[in-house]
Amino acid sequence: MSHANPRPATLACWLWIVALLVIAIVAVGGITRLTESGLSITEWKPVSGIFPPFSDAAWQAAFEKYKQIPEYREINAGMSLAAFKGIFFWEWLHRVLGRLVGVALLVPLAYYAWRRAIPAGYGWRLVGLVALVGLQGAIGWWMVVSGLADRTDVSHFRLATHLLTALFLLVALVWTARDFAVMARDPGARRARPTGAAMLVIAILFVQLMLGAWVAGLNAGYVASTWPSMNGRFVPEGIDWSHGAWFAFTNDPFLVHFLHRWWSWVAAVALLLLARTLARRGARIEPKLLLVVVAVQMTLGILTVVTGVSMEIAALHQVTGAILVAVTAAALHRLGRPAA
Predict the structure, then answer these.
(1) Contact present, 324 and 274 (Cβ < 8 Å)
(2) GO MF terms on file (predicted)?
(3) Other CB atoms within 10 A of residue 47 CB
(4) Which residues 6+ apart lie within 8 Å of 204 measured at CB?
(5) What is the tens place of the pLDDT at every residue in 13-24?
(6) Known binding-site positions
(7) How many Cα atoms sit within 13 Å of 231 on the Cβ side?
(8) Exposed, middle or buried, 165 (CB in 10 Å: 0-12/13-18/19+)?
């Protein structure tokens, strides 16, 4: 009879905490986008940027830099310093949380490596997760840069890259945490492996998440506030096909909203089939979590539309999307383990 190994259990708890931080930063990122705060900080200072302006002169200097970009000149001209401080806060908090995620991964990793507590085969994976956080910071700045010179907002393609990279990090954290949790219970257990069905679910969910990021980046949620129709029609009026189907698919807010709205049902069916498969294999927790989170997310999506993109509901929709990704990752890990 094998005895539980406490070290993997501790490692699993550590990664779950980091995963929660990633969900928190996704939530703040959603609020940052909804409040149009993302371009309020026009510089990237990885170390000194931890501290906001403290003096009146420092605040005025930051505000003057914001006044130089198109968003201020074309949309927010005349904004007060107090209003600027409001949008500055959300972008600053988003960036500070990003640094916190990096520290929360790197410092314990160094400690566990020094204590030789990392199981064989996981050292480089954990190093890769730290590197991914650094890459995510660079992607975030690459996204911000797209809105500083020639446009009044960031590229929705870069926004999608930023969000999807964060969610990929979340999946990797959850998967590795589940690995360690299984190892703690049974050191000889086989590692979970992604199945063909898992890859299909991931592909379907990837499309939906990408479309959701495009909706946010294009402000496409505002083009219709009725459901299930879009302004009285199933296929909305206003889609611009003049530049071709591909351009419309990737850039037209009416079409992107329509696709995100209805592809969600494809994603929901895929996730419910996953829940049924796991239930038939004897899993109890993952199928129930999938059912609840899918139902909540679908409801929040509809409410986001019919409320005309209520700030609170839209933010909940984004954070629930991150929770859904985490639950799906845990469910796919269960699917990839030997049947109970």
Answers:
(1) no
(2) heme A synthase activity; metal ion binding
(3) 7
(4) 266, 267, 270
(5) 999 999 999 999
(6) 260, 317
(7) 12
(8) middle
